[in-house]
Amino acid sequence: MDALSAVLAPVRLQRTRWVSTVGRAPWGVALPVVKSCIRFHYVVRGSAWLNVDKTDEPRVALSGGDLAVLPLGHAHALRDHPRSTPRSFEEVARCATHATHGVIHIDLGAKGPETTFITGGFVLDDPLATPILAALPPLIRMTPDAEQAVPSFLENIQFITREIETNRPGSEIVLLRMADVMFIQILRAYLARLPEGGGFLGALRDPSTAAALGVMHRRAEEPWTVASLAKEAGVSRSVFAARFTELVGEPPLGYLTRLRMQKAAVLLREGAALAKVSRLTGYSSEASFSHAFRKWAGMAPGAWRRHLESSDSSAASDEGRRALRA
Fold first, then answer.
1. Are residues 214 and 179 in the same domain?
2. How many domains does the chain divide into?
3. 309-324 pLDDT, tens per residue?
4. How many CB atoms within 10 Å of residue 98?
5. Which CATH number belongs to the domain containing residue 134 in this structure?
6. pLDDT tens-digit profile of 292-303?
7. 32 & 89 share domain
8. Residue 75 class from Cβ within 10 Å (0-12 exposed, 13-18 middle, 19+ buried)?
9. Structural domain for 300, as ranges
10. Does residue 89 contact residue 97 with C-beta atoms inside 8 Å?
């Protein structure tokens, strides 16, 4: 298994949402900030302008076949012209024409030139995804010409578009499965265009660092040392430690500890027993694990679990109230 596959293997998108919009000029829609949500807009036909709030990203012109990915949940707006006034997505969604197979269909605007675009939203509230998301910019733009190096990516986004437009039985489950594929392919396409270096994602292209990252993610419970990781990487201990720190941004064992704690947080959320969590994260006893976890999280594992249960319960209540208002 390659390093990118090893890093992504345990990561799962929690919720997905798909919207098909037909905008007739003048039109505009503003989407709010949504933490831990990866969103993309694929222009099927026509054109649009995109601007991202509270970033240094310039306004971007999109045309048919272009894909704009916003991996960090920033608020942003799409419109037919930079001077068009956008309506809030919440307002627009309340006026949706219909919903089929899990896809919301929206008609927007007046009687001018038409633009059709597909929007996908994926919630990724997973500690194991933190280093990946932290390495991404607020906006990634992909065009048909620039992405010829990854033709399967273009084929899949076109396949998703056909699924949404045809509304065939089974589309909802197809789109759910394709969300994971889309996320991975967006990362692959972005990784292919990164310059030398490139932070955490760039580390996945460096053979020695990638080898070490791969074994750490696959076998986090093993008693790794800098020397044993350097052996896996096929370079000297000093070269490995310096290169890893330069690319990843922290020393190998610091990264390994954080990875173990993030894995532990996921296991605790899933209800795993403390003995199992300790074993799967490489600690010889529950006491040694609890000490390490408290140092990382600022609270004991049991308190962390109760905190998560309380947060999940509050989130479910909020979601229920929103559903009653809809």
1. no
2. 2
3. 877 655 544 543 443 3
4. 10
5. 2.60.120.280
6. 999 999 999 999
7. yes
8. middle
9. 200-306
10. no
